[in-house]
Structures are given as structure tokens and as C-alpha cells.
What does this fold into?
Amino acid sequence: MIGAANGHDFAVSCAGVRKSFGAGETKTEALRGVDFDARFGQLTFLVGPSGCGKTTLISIIAGLLDRSSGELAVLGLRPDELSGGERVRFRRRNLGFIFQQYNLLPSLTAAENVAVPLLAAGVPRRQAVRRATDLLARLGLENRAAARPATLSGGQQQRVAIARALVHEPRLIVCDEPTAALDHENGEAVLQLLASTAVNPDRAVIVVTHDSRVFHHAHRIARMDDGRIVDVAKQARASLSPAANGAETHEEDR
Amino acid sequence: MNFVALRMLTGDRAKYFGLVFAIAFCTFLLENQTTIFASILKRTASQILDVTDAEVWVMDQKTEYWEQTKALKDTDLTRVRGVPGVLWAVRLFKGNPVARTRSGKFAVSFLIGLDDATLAGAPRKMLLGSWERLREPDSVIIDEAGYVLLYPGEPLELGRTLEMNDHLVTIVGISDASAPFVSLPVMHARYSKAIDFLGRERTQLSFVIARPEPGVTPAALTERIQATTGLKARTTGEFMWDCVRYYLRNTGIPVNFGITIAVALIVGAVVGGQTFYLFTIENLKQFGALKAIGVTNPRLIGMILLQAFSAGILGFALGTGMAATFFEITSHMLATRGIALLWQCVALTGAAILGVVIVASILSIRRVLVLEPAAVFR
Ligand SMILES: Nc1ncnc2c1ncn2[C@@H]1O[C@H](COP(=O)(O)OP(=O)(O)OP(=O)(O)O)[C@@H](O)[C@H]1O
Ligand SMILES: [Mg+2]
It folds into this structure.
């Protein structure tokens, strides 16, 4: 599996990844040997009950957390081969993040928020904000580019957060419950946006979600339970329409 | 990222103003109190520093400061004049007679008796009249504050008479003498007249003031005078410090001011430093998001330092402006005349504020560095 990561199909591949928190009496095994992969050009869902380890897994994939054991390759690189500073730069260049709580900076305008990854990479402010404004326009937020997050609706804020995750054209985008704070309509819009960004042979999108109403957007759905992947289903996504619930084909059963 | 850091800082107006004003008030209090403290202590030597003619003061071994003098013998003047390197040396008398106006108002005053021949030590800053008129019979010069004290609400004018120990004297000049430690009139007269104003008091030759010949430093001359005459000799600067040290050692002034200054420092450090630290804590989520996005630790440190220093510098500038304005206003008042913001106090306060900013930054930076970026998903 890890070998395949060096090819062009796998954006992420994990084999036997384990993660425990704490020690002794309070030791929690959040991940108990996860085999998981995410492919380029696909929208991969990670679903499962609360506390099963979804957030822990994507944090490890994103390089925000260290695993306890197991093998991991992200965009063809093993995180262990990178120094601390290289990992930060790798993340800055190649990863986009979307959070449940949006995590926009309240004192910046929408466009400035979107520009943050570019600014962090050293792009001059004026140029960064111009690129951010262009992207917001493509997401239908041209009128809100100068607005503060507090004056935007939840759906608009999440679209701004998506723009921030996309602006530097990362190859891997990880989202943790991006629709949890949104109503169905706005959740649909956000997922459609993510699905359309995933249709890119050089990009992969991983979405953690509870929301079964949006499952039909996924190319593949990995089900997790108690620190393991228990099932991966491949979906034929007929269209982007909300009604299309693609027939599932199960790749493997455990 | 610098503008992001500044926006984070100024984003919450109320908190930002709170932080800047905490630092500004701390700055104001520190600069204000240290300046007043230093200036009041300096006033203990006002009459010494006003004598710009002389550079060397000779006194009895037992004389410790301006207020408390033991008389010299008349022969001491001749002995000082005999020391090689003395350009000139003249007598100076200092006493505290009572001055009484016609209307019956009276005040104890600081009277300085000047050498009849040279008038060395006469006030050089005159508001009305001239010091040369001290040569006229029964004449005195009084300072403005003393005049106002004796003739409240009346215009400054010459020719008024005062009664001093049954002697009637005429005011021939009004000086702008530096404020003494105690707000009493400062008067100047000729030596020969001045000793009459004191009545029975026998303390006559309080000081011999002198100037060295060209090429001899005042410090070298004081050593020579001490060695040859056995009298105590001090340069003007040394004598000023003798007075300041005496008050520091023997009065409650340093304790009083020390408490105010310490309170200002603690309040400033706690309120200013704490506000900044809490500001960082409240923004941890934002710092976490930046960390996840890939902002490096040195960059985050730079952002926090920029925030701390811009708030610190702005607060300090504002506080210094407030202190300067305060002294600009009070310097026109008689009681607080001559007290101006001292650059040493500004520098000292700046160092204290810098310390507060550095400590608050270090604490904030520590919190941000140990922050788990994975926490942003929670
Ligand atoms: N920093 C941590 N310290 C200790 N335990 C942790 C930590 N993070 C997660 N855990 C534990 O690991 C397990 C998996 O947590 P995780 O957040 O990955 O679950 P999740 O699938 O994302 O749940 P949810 O759907 O509720 O977000 C839980 O039992 C949790 O308590
Ligand atoms: Mg979670």
C-alpha cells in the first residue's frame, strides 16, 4: 500500500497507523491500526461515530499530530523524513484546511482572511489580497470581499474558509465536519464546491463528516469505528445533484 | 504577516484602547512621580545652584547641607584667599529673618547676604529692577513667589518697604529665584546689611564662595583648600548632592515617593502586562489556525513581538505626552515652577515599560509555541 503512494494514484496512504494519548491509567487508544488511503482526483469521506478517531486521523495526515506507530505517506513523502521546519513549509505549500468552526480571523476582511496562506508564503500583501478577491468572486462572494467575518452568514463564512483552503492551490485538502454548523442548503453548497475542486487529477480532498445527507457527494466513503477503518465503499457519483445517491460498491469488508 | 498581527491587535477596539491606556497611565505616573521626586530633592539645593558666579563652596567641617550651617571665622576668608589657585573668594551670608509688610503680613525668609564690593552670588534672573541696585542703601531683592506671598493679589512693583528686625528696607528688584525646598521668600541684600536683619544671631560668615584660576579645576581647588585650611570645601555639584543625600537619608520623602512609584510600576506591569497576556490567550485559536496553515514559529514570535512593542511604544509615547503636558501646565504655576519633565525619568520609565513589554511577550510567546496546532480541529 505504501509502495503505491509513490505512484500517482495515492495522495495519502496509511498502513497500521496507531495513536494513543496519555499513559498508564488514562491511556486512550484513539487509532488502533488504521489502513486508509485517499486518491488524487477524488473526494474521500471519513465517517463514523463520535470518538472513533476521525479527527485524530486527519490531524496525523495533515502533519498536525505525530502518530505512535505505523506507516504513513502524504503526497509521496513520509513525514518522518522531514525536519520540523520542513514539515511546516510542506504543510504551508501543499495543504488546505477547513474547520467546523471556520476559524477565520475576526479582525481581517474576508479577502484578507483568504489571503493568509499566501501571506504566510511571503506573497506581497497587495498581490495576495487581489488573488484572494478573484477567488472569492469565483465562489460568488464578490460583494462580500471587504466584509468582516462577523457580518457574514455561516454559509458565507464557510465559503470564505474554503477559499482560504484553496487560494494557494494545495494538493491535499482536509476538512473536519465542514457542514456541521450549516443548514442543509448551505451544507449542500459547500459540498458541491468541494466536489468540484476535487475533480482535478492532482488534488485530493478528505472530508470528515457525520452528515449522511451529503454522502452522495463522495467518490469513496471510509467508515471508521473504534480506531479502525471498518469498510470502504466506492460510489458512482452520477451527478452533482443532491438527489443522486450513487450505488455503493464495497471494496473490502473487515 | 505584519499587518495581520497589527489587525489582530487593533481588531477589538475596547481591548486595544484598554491596553494602550494602561501602559500610557503607568508611563504618566512613573514619569510624573520620578520627576517631581527628583525636582523636589533638587530644590533643597536651589540657592546653591542659583549662585552661578562661584564654583567652590567653603564651609565649616560641621556644615552638612544648606539649611544647617555653622559659622566660619572672619579669618577663614583670608586663609581661603591665600590658597594658590583661588581667583577670587568672597563671603556669603545665609539667615532666616522675619520680613513684615506695612499691613502686618509677615513671613520667615531665606536671606542671602552678598559681598558688599562685588555682589557675587546676586540673582541673575531678574523680573523687575536690577541686582546692581542692591548698592543703594537699605535695599533688598525679593523673589516673585515671596512677593506674592507677602502681597497677595497685588501687582509686581518696586519701591515697597518691608520691616526686618526694626530695619526698614526698600524692594529694589524682583528676582526669579529657583524655588526653595520650603516655599518661603528668597531675599538678597548686601552682607553688611543682612547681618543686621538677624538681630542677636551671631552666625555671620556662613560660606566663602570662590572661583578657581583658569587652568585649575574646581575639584582640584576644593582638595587644595581642604588640605591647606582644614575647612570643608565642595564644588557646586558636590554641595548639591550633599543636600540631596541629606534629605534622602533624614526625611520621609524617599519612602513616600518610593511607595507611589512602586505602586505605579506594579499597577502598570500587572494591568498592562496582564492585558496583553490575556489578549494572546484569547487569540490562541487564531494563532492555532495560523500554525495549522503553516505560519512558522519564528514568524509567530515576530507577530507577538510586533504586537507587544507597538502597544508598548504607543502607550509610552501617549503617557510621555501626557506627562509633558502636565509639566507644561504646572510649570506656569508659582508653587510648581521650575519642575520640568526630566529626560532621565523618561529614560528610566522607558526601561521599566520595556521590561514589562518583554516579560509579557515572553509569557505570550511561550503559550503560543506550546500550542498544539491539532487543537484547531476541536
Ligand atoms: N489530545 C487528546 N488527548 C487525549 N485524548 C484524546 C485527544 N484527542 C482525542 N482524544 C481521544 O481520542 C479518541 C478519538 O478522538 P477524535 O477526536 O479523533 O474522535 P472523532 O472521531 O473526531 O469524534 P467526533 O466525531 O466527536 O469529532 C477519543 O476517545 C478522544 O477522547
Ligand atoms: Mg472530530
